[in-house]
Amino acid sequence: MDKTPEQNLKDLSITLNEVSQPIASYVNCVQTGNLLFLSGKGPIKEDKTYVTGKVGKDLTVEQGNEAARLVAIDHIAVLKDELGDLSKVKRIVKAFGMVHCTSDFVDQAKVINGYSDLMFSVFGEKGRHARSAVSMHALPLNFAVEVEVIVEIED
């Protein structure tokens, strides 16, 4: 029998933080039909500070990868808040990953893998998704990464 996403989080020793509130005039999540559109999130640490700086200058690929993993944890917290039960997730459909990096940086995919790998670890095959991983000259609050995601939920 497959483990639930909540069991997988426990096995990974991940405790979901309280959902972080938007930093401007938008909401964390909008539902239309069976799709949830989650707003872009930055990498928030347990102490409520953000991972900031440019990957390739201020941060290594590994630090950027960990920052992307933190965004996944925050998105999972939003899903838990919206749905109550993460088993209602039918599929992580599409992630759009933005990496705040130097102009010569080319390992955006390795950075955003931190997000994608955690989604697979928590949701199994339902966590495999289409994805973009792109460079950004700047991100809000100097975030190292930002990711937005589309999620299909059960009827």
TrEMBL record:
Record InterPro entries: Endoribo_LPSP/chorism_mut-like, RutC-like_sf
SUPFAM superfamilies listed in its UniProt record: YjgF-like (SSF55298)
Matching Pfam families: YjgF_endoribonc (PF14588)
Sequence ranges assigned to domain Endoribonuclease L-PSP/chorismate mutase-like in this UniProt record: 12-151
Gene3D superfamilies from the UniProt entry: RutC-like
Top-rank taxon: Bacteria
Record's protein name: Putative translation initiation inhibitor, yjgF family
